[in-house]
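For this section, I looked closely at a protein sequence along with its fold in token form, which I now present.
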Amino acid sequence: MSTELKSGIYFAEDVDLAGSSFKKVSLSGARFEDVSLRGAAFEDVALVGASLRNVNLSDVTIEDANYAGMKLDGVLVTELLRVYRESAGLK
């Protein structure tokens, strides 16, 4: 069953949206609490200024991303990657 949503503010609690598809959607300023995104796929997504806390990132893959300014536990990811590549003898 497919439901088309018009622009606006929505509140969803204790619902199952498994298998849903979102395309050309703005969720700027949205808040997600106690949400499962297991197996979800994100492509061409802007997370600029997003904050992730108490998240389970096990088995997450990130490719072709812009890491400028991104921090993990307060450490710049670009710096982590630079140090890793140097120690591994990579470019």
